[in-house]
From TrEMBL:
<feature type="binding site" description="axial binding residue">
    <location>
        <position position="425"/>
    </location>
    <ligand>
        <name>heme</name>
    </ligand>
</feature>
<dbReference type="Pfam" id="PF00067">
    <property type="entry name" value="p450"/>
</dbReference>
<dbReference type="GO" id="GO:0005506">
    <property type="term" value="F:iron ion binding"/>
</dbReference>
<dbReference type="GO" id="GO:0004497">
    <property type="term" value="F:monooxygenase activity"/>
</dbReference>
<dbReference type="GO" id="GO:0016125">
    <property type="term" value="P:sterol metabolic process"/>
</dbReference>
<keyword id="KW-0560">Oxidoreductase</keyword>
<keyword id="KW-0349">Heme</keyword>
<dbReference type="GO" id="GO:0020037">
    <property type="term" value="F:heme binding"/>
</dbReference>
<dbReference type="GO" id="GO:0016705">
    <property type="term" value="F:oxidoreductase activity, acting on paired donors, with incorporation or reduction of molecular oxygen"/>
</dbReference>
<dbReference type="InterPro" id="IPR002401">
    <property type="entry name" value="Cyt_P450_E_grp-I"/>
</dbReference>
<dbReference type="InterPro" id="IPR017972">
    <property type="entry name" value="Cyt_P450_CS"/>
</dbReference>
<keyword id="KW-0408">Iron</keyword>
<dbReference type="InterPro" id="IPR036396">
    <property type="entry name" value="Cyt_P450_sf"/>
</dbReference>
<protein>
    <submittedName>
        <fullName>Uncharacterized protein</fullName>
    </submittedName>
</protein>
<keyword id="KW-0479">Metal-binding</keyword>
<keyword id="KW-0503">Monooxygenase</keyword>
<dbReference type="InterPro" id="IPR001128">
    <property type="entry name" value="Cyt_P450"/>
</dbReference>
Length: 479
């Protein structure tokens, strides 16, 4: 037998045997949700991943809901899982003390055991507090002009003078540059370029069957993560040296702040390895979601002339009386309301985060069923966002759903693009700023049309339009 085949059989067979032994030792409790756990280790993972990559994931989830109801059991990424859907389920996931954050093994291996998505309790509160220092209103006001400068430079270098561009990779690079500059103090240059290249591959395998074999997405992501971790480790050591020399302070950037966290005896609260994990999680959370949002805004506007015209008018009004080249301000962004409602409707229709996982830290109940201790709980955004009882005519694009004067707004925990509860996205306002600033410059300088007649996308695990969304662009006549 060839060695690679033997290793593959061992890699698959050993977890299966352990899984069976564990089941024999720990019989299942009664009153489990309906459904099946499928094959050991594999479960429904492959079917789910195929649906994600064929743009049928929402249908795949809805088929389960139609078959089993809003609560069902399955196995995803090597662990028994309970799928829950609907506003009540979202509220349960966001607020229940019986659940704690725990990502699938693939996520923990790639992002690190102490990544931001994994922290709970006092650890999460401490790190969220550190993030809040850099995302509070006073800091966000300062970021507007810096983000404006990054966007102008990006547009000049990557859009101006071109007839075609591929949107998604450009948006990913823009948002990556913004967050690494503002939160990590990483200036333009080869180090930032290398880190950006690695992060393109890190996300590819976070939702995958965690079998470390050659040529798999999981293996590619592990290798990219290792390279990114070495880069971040060097940045952390350099920042630490600057703090010791007095060349940096706690408020210089997020890494300096995390290095400065200490107890009453001045003992650091975090190791450098933990800071690397948190940095990786923050970078992914901070740039991938915003880049997907802006890409799908551009995609939608190519075929929605009415919404496009209203947005262009709004942005033209904002700069009336300004000198050409004058940067946007915090007060300017407060006037750009319709564009943000368009962004929220995009997030409803195509949520960047398909769903997320928690774990039961004790036996608990929901919907009349038992969720055993240690099982994953998986919630999704799409089923709720496309529920006609919550959002009438859900397939219709309608930004007015998010006007403040709605007579019958959707109930709490219906719109969950930013999560909810104590762990609601800390960077929501930051994302609003970079989205509005970016769309301002693109809308006022360009008009575009899609190159591909087939207007589809896949999830891997973030939404990705066909070929990265190539578009033809031309300069817009200034009003």
């Amino acid at each position: 037998m060839e060695l690679p085949l033997l290793l593959a059989l061992i890699a698959i067979g050993v977890p299966v045997i352990l899984h069976v032994v564990t089941r024999l030792k720990n019989p299942r409790p009664a009153n489990l949700p309906p459904g099946s756990l499928g094959l050991p280790l594999i479960g429904q993972s492959l079917g789910f991943l195929r649906a994600m990559r064929s743009n049928t994931a929402e249908r795949w989830i809805q088929d389960r809901v139609d078959r089993y109801g809003p609560v069902s059991k399955l196995s995803l990424f090597g662990a028994p899982t309970v799928l829950v859907t609907g506003p009540a389920a979202n509220k349960f996931v966001f607020f229940s003390d019986a659940l704690a954050m725990r990502q699938p093994r693939s996520v923990r291996r790639i992002l690190g055991e102490r990544n931001l998505l994994e922290l709970n309790g006092a650890d999460h509160k401490r790190i969220r507090g550190a993030l809040a220092e850099f995302l509070k209103p006073d800091m966000l006001r300062l970021y507007v002009s810096k983000i404006d400068g990054e966007v102008r430079r990006h547009v000049d270098e990557n859009w101006t003078g071109r007839t075609t561009v591929i949107v998604l990779p450009l948006m990913k690079r823009l948002t990556f540059d913004i967050i690494t500059s503002l939160l990590f103090g990483l200036e333009r240059g080869p180090v930032r370029d290398a880190l950006a290249g690695d992060f393109e591959h890190v996300v590819e395998g976070v939702w995958s069957v965690p079998v470390d074999l050659p040529f798999t997405a999981f293996r590619r992501s592990l290798r990219a993560s290792a390279r990114a971790r070495r880069t971040l480790d060097a940045i952390i050591r350099e920042t630490k040296a600057k703090l010791e020399r007095g060349e940096a302070t706690r408020s210089s950037n997020l890494i300096a702040c995390l290095l400065s966290l200490a107890d009453d005896r001045c003992v650091p609260l975090m190791s450098e390895e933990e800071i690397v994990d948190i940095s990786i999680g923050t970078l992914i959370a901070g740039h991938d979601t915003s880049s997907v949002l802006m890409t799908f805004m551009i995609r939608h506007l190519a075929n929605d002339t009415e919404t496009l015209a209203a947005m262009v008018q709004e942005h033209d009004e904002v700069v009336k009386g300004k000198e050409d080249g004058e940067t946007l301000t915090w007060e300017d962004l407060a006037k750009i309301k319709f564009t943000w409602r368009v962004a929220l409707e995009i997030l409803r229709v195509v949520p960047p985060i398909f769903g997320n996982f928690k774990a039961a830290i004790q036996d608990t109940e929901f919907g009349g069923y038992t969720i055993p201790k240690g099982w994953q709980v998986f919630w999704t955004a799409g089923v709720t966002h496309m529920d006609a009882a919550l959002f009438p005519g859900p397939s219709k694009f309608d930004p007015s759903r998010f006007e403040n004067n709605q007579s019958s707004p959707a109930p709490p925990c219906s719109f969950v693009a930013f999560g909810g509860g104590p762990r609601i996205c800390a960077g929501m306002e930051f994302a609003r700023i970079e989205t509005l600033v970016t769309m301002h410059h693109l809308l006022r300088r360009f008009q575009w049309r899609l190159c591909c007649k087939e207007d589809t996308f896949v999830r891997d695990p973030m939404p990705s339009p066909l070929h990265g969304l190539p578009i033809e662009i031309e300069q817009r006549a200034r009003s």
